[in-house]
Amino acid sequence: MGLSDPVVLFFLLGFTASLLKSELKLPASLYETLSILLLLAIGLKGGVELAKQASWSLLGQSVAVLAMGVVLPLLAFPLLRVFGFARADAASLVAHYGSVSVGTFAVAVAYLAAQGIVFEEYLPLFVVVLEVPAILVGIVLAKGIRRDTDWKALGHELFLGKSIVLLIGGLLIGWIAGPTGVKPLEPLFFTLFKPLLALFLLEMGLIAASQLGSLKRYGVPLVVFATLMPLVSSVAGAGLGVALGLSVGGVAMLATLAASASYIAVPAAMRMAVPEANPSLSLTASLGITFPFNIVIGIPLYLQLAQWLAATL
Amino acid sequence: MGLSDPVVLFFLLGFTASLLKSELKLPASLYETLSILLLLAIGLKGGVELAKQASWSLLGQSVAVLAMGVVLPLLAFPLLRVFGFARADAASLVAHYGSVSVGTFAVAVAYLAAQGIVFEEYLPLFVVVLEVPAILVGIVLAKGIRRDTDWKALGHELFLGKSIVLLIGGLLIGWIAGPTGVKPLEPLFFTLFKPLLALFLLEMGLIAASQLGSLKRYGVPLVVFATLMPLVSSVAGAGLGVALGLSVGGVAMLATLAASASYIAVPAAMRMAVPEANPSLSLTASLGITFPFNIVIGIPLYLQLAQWLAATL
Amino acid sequence: MGLSDPVVLFFLLGFTASLLKSELKLPASLYETLSILLLLAIGLKGGVELAKQASWSLLGQSVAVLAMGVVLPLLAFPLLRVFGFARADAASLVAHYGSVSVGTFAVAVAYLAAQGIVFEEYLPLFVVVLEVPAILVGIVLAKGIRRDTDWKALGHELFLGKSIVLLIGGLLIGWIAGPTGVKPLEPLFFTLFKPLLALFLLEMGLIAASQLGSLKRYGVPLVVFATLMPLVSSVAGAGLGVALGLSVGGVAMLATLAASASYIAVPAAMRMAVPEANPSLSLTASLGITFPFNIVIGIPLYLQLAQWLAATL
Amino acid sequence: MQTHQRTLLTVICEAVLEHKLEQALEKLGAPGWTIADARGRGGRGVRSAGWDTEGNIRVEVICNRELAQNIADYLHEHYYANFAMVCYLSAVEVFRADKF
Amino acid sequence: MQTHQRTLLTVICEAVLEHKLEQALEKLGAPGWTIADARGRGGRGVRSAGWDTEGNIRVEVICNRELAQNIADYLHEHYYANFAMVCYLSAVEVFRADKF
Amino acid sequence: MQTHQRTLLTVICEAVLEHKLEQALEKLGAPGWTIADARGRGGRGVRSAGWDTEGNIRVEVICNRELAQNIADYLHEHYYANFAMVCYLSAVEVFRADKF
Ligand SMILES: Nc1ncnc2c1ncn2[C@@H]1O[C@H](COP(=O)(O)O)[C@@H](O)[C@H]1O
Ligand SMILES: Nc1ncnc2c1ncn2[C@@H]1O[C@H](COP(=O)(O)O)[C@@H](O)[C@H]1O
Ligand SMILES: Nc1ncnc2c1ncn2[C@@H]1O[C@H](COP(=O)(O)O)[C@@H](O)[C@H]1O
Ligand code: NA
Ligand code: NA
Ligand code: NA
Known about the structure:
heterohexamer; A: mainly alpha; Na+/H+ antiporter like fold; 80% helix; D: alpha+beta; Alpha-Beta Plaits; five-stranded antiparallel sheet; 2 helices; 5 strands; 26% helix; binds adenosine monophosphate; binds sodium ion
């Protein structure tokens, strides 16, 4: 279990403090700073790896991962409609779950490192690849391919949003500067990665618990969706990982990516593109349920799944 | 003298800049971030130690320290009344001085480290123990045990305030994760402890000097109290330390804790619980006089006291 | 070329993101924090060196550097007037260019370190020396030595502004604490110097590009000035460096200092002292053109100049 | 769209009161409120927002005249003696009568 | 100095609308505007500014009565259904008639 | 509680003027003031608060009509030519006549 890892403990501290209505609060700019640093760190790490081994096979893998980011939301949407969610709300939910959570990815990185399990270092590339497609799927599901959608503004929103720019920017910098160029940056982006992640999770705990307030408004169907969807997606992710020939660590990471739900890029994009969707519904699910679930229970589970697959196949 | 230690120099830089009316200002969120990091660092350090040696004797020591936190304000209160302070103001003042200043504790940690003097690593526990009791004493002194005090709200305020949650949270995380679990967090919380403390003291210098403006309004009695009280308390703290069988470093630390006056948790709590007390009076004393006094003169003095006691007894 | 150094890449990332109208934004307090850390780091480094080798010859060098800070603006002013700039605008521009940019200095520090080229460690002293004189020259050029200038308020503004206080404060702390005293501060101020600089440049890129919007309003003369002035100044700086007997690295640094234009201290001072000058004009020049020019093209050029001078003379 | 007369109550007070004020507004039936951070100077000295508990907040409540009076009375009674605080009323026109 | 009657339109809405609002104000011909960050509670729940997209902004536009009405109508039509938003008008006196 | 008519002077201007403004308000006898950070656009361009000296402040002074006029006149005379600045007046009701 990951429960005794200090980063998870920081999350639980924030979560508990918020449930107890403590007045503990992190300055908004600290949270922003931490998320900028995590995004850059993940991008840089991936970029350094690309500098070592960019290849056609990697491009092929990326296309396959991208396809997963399109297919999963398409499958989940009709199910949500059956469960009675409004069209816009269902579309918004699947956009959140088809995309990824960088925070969850970072916790998985720290978890595997603590377990001494390596994974393909280029996996941050897949974070980038998975970020956007589900949002597009969600918008089309909500509105159809309508003429009155301002696709230009939307494309701008999607590809020039904060997280994508930092991830891709970090990737490119890591790629161009290469391992030796990035070396002097390591004290901040690599050595301090875990403690900064711990602080980030403290804030995430505070926020996640504050989302629970709206939980009873949405009831059981949302809780079911927010715990089943990551489990199902993780199996899809793990399957794809095995099919792509990833290592055990790589399979666990791809399962985690698939299981994670966005709470930064997607909410902002959907708010503008599909304003009739209830933003609080998706955020409650992804931030209030799925994020804690993945951090505390999911990630260790996905690793076991990967190990079991490796042992079985 | 500690005067040439760089953290003290940072304090003096801020103090001087503020006296000269420089426009130097640290962003509010930096100050908040630094205080969060210091609180967590101190908590973590204590928690790791608890993981190694939690014991019944430690519990006994904690009770003794707690008793000191109750007795000192009770003794100081009548004295202040004699000096002409209003009931509410006197009560608020003794609450500030019976509680502790985490910033002062951190400077003492850095000072002893620079001198190569060790102390019982579980001392952060006493920071936690001393934080709250004096506030309760202060409230009772101000209002009596009145029916209209909302003790529930008050308890909430006291035990779920920012500093207590971070200190106890850090303690618990350190305790659960243990020395190896906390290791990856060290680059932030331990390696950067002193430079972050230096920045923190830069801001404290700016704030402390800005409190001096209201000094002439309150005059000599306040200055006398704010320098004598820490001296007297330090002797009590040192005495208790010797009685508990602490090392020289431990005695110096307990003397420092006793001598220090709160300027974060207590002002906020007293503002709500005893609003008729003048908040500026207590803050001028604890932040404008006692904090600089302890940082620059007190801590080296308390160490000498501890060394003298060790040599004498 | 410095183009593949990661800190320059961070600058280009910010610059590009801003040109593409990405919504990437760093929290204002992060930028403030970073500039505080850079100023302190540069001051501390210089101060530690002063502790080792303060001397009369150093004082003589400082006076010569100060003279350069007075003479360069005086020479540039009539030229700008000929080119049709209003009196106040021309005065404000030369004040910006006669003073220095700490960000540019920091990039040069990182660039020389990456090239393995050493320089006289006391060069931060010249940053301090060059900061103020050009502002005074600019004010006198704008207003004459008029009776109604509030020189007292002005002196206060100049010598107690944020950057000067942090630079001088850092210098003094480094000087007093000396190499061993400063050692525990190194993890923040020295080890993290380059990654923090990278973040700082990310923000500078965002800001620099946002200045370009006003470029077309001011047209070609401003662009010409903002690229020629640093080149001419760098030759003057390099010449002085050679005359003072500095090493190749020292000559390159002094050339960089001469070539750099202030965008922090001077804008603030000129806004109050010469409010009739258009603040956007100077900022567009120094921040939108000269800063990127120096970072990307200038610094490598100034090093080559220094190497060529060393080989030739 | 047609407009309707309402009263805007503005309260400027110590930031430390934010939570209590919200509870009071809820209790007294305010239809909503808006809060922003501020600093200032008044009869009770400079409040520079430079230090934790030292800032002000500026609270706005749009409601009917009577409720605005009630809230102001309540605040004066409970907080005016011990806290830095200023209240004032002004006339505004809103677009949805049912909302305020 | 002489004063002139104008109308002050105040809009309190989700921070995420800032950019769109500015575009609308520009399009509709507002002579200027002022924006500040805020938080609050209204018919559409608490907006605590604690999380990225969760804050409010408070926008002020000084202009003539007709334009203020136009802007308010435009905002109601485009955003009121799906976004937390409140608009109100008040009477102000300005010093430069040509500026507003 | 009874209310009394006063004037609210609101000034929106460059943040760099804060200190000077406070000195002027003190000199002219303002009974108090409230300041908040803001951003905006006006005749002198966009002021986005993205860069050090680039933000606005929003200053409010409650006082009698005459003093409000005086302050506005003073500000126009001293700062209007060279700084981004807007002033306006509105009518408010206060609760303590002696305070303002
Ligand atoms: N005349 C005034 N005009 C505007 N704001 C005021 C005025 N007087 C007081 N304030 C604000 O109200 C707060 C509390 O006022 P006081 O209780 O008088 O100290 C001050 O810190 C100011 O922010
Ligand atoms: N009666 C009110 N008085 C002041 N502000 C309000 C009021 N009602 C709503 N607001 C503000 O307008 C925002 C949006 O309101 P709503 O659309 O009703 O949720 C809220 O978050 C508040 O900041
Ligand atoms: N019509 C207006 N309505 C509201 N605020 C305005 C208006 N015009 C200007 N402002 C504000 O006043 C500041 C200075 O205005 P200006 O001097 O016209 O550039 C702007 O940056 C805005 O924040
Ligand atoms: Na996913
Ligand atoms: Na104490
Ligand atoms: Na220069």
